[in-house]
Amino acid sequence: MSLKSRGGGGGGGGGGGEAAASKSAVSRKWTLLFCIGCFCAGMLFSDRMWSVPEIKDVSRTTRVDNETPKLVSGCDPTIKDVEYEPKDVYGEVSKTHHAIHTLDKKISNLEMELAAAKAAQESILSGSPIAENLRIPATRNKRKYLMVVGINTAFSSRKRRDSVRATWMPQADKRKQLEEKKGIVVRFVIGHSATSGGILDRAIEAEEKRHGDIMRLDHVEGYLELSAKTKIFFATAVALWDADFYVKVDDDVHVNIGTLGATLARHRTKPRVYIGCMKSGPVLAQKGVRYHEPEYWKFGAEGNKYFRHATGQLYAISKDLANYISNNQHVLHKYANEDVSLGSWFIGLDVEQIDDRRLCCGTPPDCEWKAQAGNVCVASFDWSCSGICKSSERIKEVHKRCGEGENALWNAAF
Description:
Blueprint: H1 3-6, H2 12-67, H3 84-126, E1 144-152, H4 158-165, H5 172-182, E2 184-192, H6 199-211, E3 214-220, H7 226-240, E4 242-250, E5 254-255, H8 257-265, E6 273-279, E7 309-318, H9 319-328, H10 338-345, E8 352-355, H11 366-372, E9 379-380, H12 391-402, H13 406-411
Parallel strand pairs: 1-2, 1-4, 2-3, 6-8
Antiparallel strand pairs: 4-7, 5-9, 6-7
Helix pairs in contact: 3-7, 4-12, 7-9, 7-10
EC number: 2.4.1.-
Pathway: Protein modification; protein glycosylation
InterPro entries: DUF4094, Glyco_trans_31
């Protein structure tokens, strides 16, 4: 039946329209409720579907985090109990640094022992003063000496060397006895000329063949290279001779060896000793003057003084300090003046500086009066010349008036 024929009656048409409208309203309410219900069901179903993967992700992340250390800032609230992990990481880093430091120290010690072993082997082959019963290049079998005295000299200083040989430096058999009985080694120290194998080198080789008292360094001689020469001397000496002390002295200075040995022996139990006449002179910035310091600006404003260091005519350092120079010679800075360089190498180290003025007495009458008073000087020179003025001519006079006497050396007990 069609809708049109249903609504065809006159009076019954109004009642039928109201019923249809009522049904239509009820249908819309149920439809709205049904939609709301479906929406809520969909939301509930959607929450459940998404919550499970989220929980799994958090659980998996926590499990992985517990298995591997990580550095986190702690900003993620889903990650818990990670406060202890950075401490564990820092602890591992600290242990690693400690292990590296220990390994580096062992390597340095091995390198030093290797260098000393090579030097000992070369000494055996060349006849250098190593104990005669030494048959293998092992440092533990090397003889122990009290001190090694290196006399800094130059190619042009033949007369100075001869004057030293004629006064305070024992010669020939007496020098060997000095090494064997007193444990004192004395050598002139010199490098090579700029022209290797030239006339200067041949002259030194002939002099060494005659006297046997010259120590050659792997170094090119030059006045501006004294700091490098000093560094190489200590490194070479500590490899050749196992001594308590290593001494550097200029070839225009008079030395009483017995008094020097007795002075150093009093400090034998101290591990890091730096002995000399300590000073702190001005840093000379003006070009052309003697002892000019090109790097004067490193010492602050112009007119400042150097740090405290031993004067360069004579000073002594203990074995530990000589080893320190040998092990670190490639990074130790060289200033223009070698005594300043040596003092700078010990800044920052736990070193005991000993200022002993007997290591820098004046020439007669100063050293003579002190000797007569029973206070024999270790070394004598003229400050105005930074050594004995005209030393090749005057050192015999100084030795006669200020010398300790031959018996003082051989009767001394170190």
